[in-house]
Amino acid sequence: MSAPKAVLFDIDGTLVDSNYLHVDAWHQAFQALGVDVPAWRIHRSIGQDAGELLTSLVGERDEEWIGRAKDLHSENYKTLAPRLRLLPEARQLLERLDAGGITVVLATSAPQEELDILLELIDSDTVIHATTNADDVDVAKPSPDIVQVALERAGVEPHEAVFVGDSEWDITAASSAGVRSFGVLTGGIAGDLLMQAGAERVFADASDFVERLGELGWTA
Amino acid sequence: MSAPKAVLFDIDGTLVDSNYLHVDAWHQAFQALGVDVPAWRIHRSIGQDAGELLTSLVGERDEEWIGRAKDLHSENYKTLAPRLRLLPEARQLLERLDAGGITVVLATSAPQEELDILLELIDSDTVIHATTNADDVDVAKPSPDIVQVALERAGVEPHEAVFVGDSEWDITAASSAGVRSFGVLTGGIAGDLLMQAGAERVFADASDFVERLGELGWTA
Fold first, then answer.
1. Is ipTM over 0.90?
2. How would you class B60 by CB atoms within 10 Å of its CB: exposed for 0-12, middle for 13-18, buried for 19 or more?
3. Hey, which end of chain B has fewer CB within 10 Å, N or C?
4. pLDDT of A220
């Protein structure tokens, strides 16, 4: 496979070690609302649209309950944010791709407030061509909408891009947009599940990805 | 497969929803000591002996550092303990097995202090034949030692028992003791990994296990 024109990256769990903090933030939110949801089920839902996450975990609820759950999650996550860290060699991966003439776009539907914290950690503004956020779409992954926005910002066709993500929702969103995808294990979702969802390859993390750039034929 | 004489249960992540709290307790401990370990790697190490967990995650360290890490983990875990919950139908599973004449033994190497909290949540003293703890062995899973102690307490031979656990370390420990094993997904480790480690079957959780008792031929 020759180098794509653009690589579209999920951020949460892919570039930044945030998934387990999101699990914790939702776990605390549900307990505060008197609902016990096993943590592994929350984990499996991370990365998809918050509305769909809530429906799959706690069933149908009224608007007020959903609003309170989302607010509690946001507050808890903000409290946990000082523990966020960039994943190993995430920055190097973006820099290497950019140096190789590949357009790097961050494709997330995180709210701008969360995104600001993530971008500060990634600290690679000069190599990031564009970034999406929650305002760009009505519904998040696994809907392909955010991938389509990222493709537009990259200025490429679906077959000219590769999406990189850590969750089944990322892989499904990419597939639905006609974009092939690579998985990473850093979100805590097993490689087999990512492959079953349609990932072409799975890397342990960005560091593993960097090591294999030569093997992929993506570097000069 | 006919009903075994005894079923040996791991507790953490199998009967009680504790794995993600252990991940959090270690994550905070490492950060307090100035070491960033990605959460997914901590998660994959949960369930094995703390000494081996530390070596695999942070390499060789002196005794003092190891002691501080373990103490910080214990303190953090104690703080998180009010958020521990029994997993769905865990108690019913133990009761159904006991009612079917199957000896139930809890096979853990948790320290007694942690175990007391777990047993209070499980609240099934009358159906639990015996329980192991950290004092019973020098080294925890994946060493088979704790499984062997559990077999002795159950008064059965390896081929007369089934071990139930949520981590690759559980499955490996059971295999090394000559005991077949079933996996559960409640610890957040994928079924494929549990099967690859040697699990004969994988259930989503205790509730799924209860539903399949008839199909297994384990109920009268």
1. yes
2. exposed
3. C
4. 55
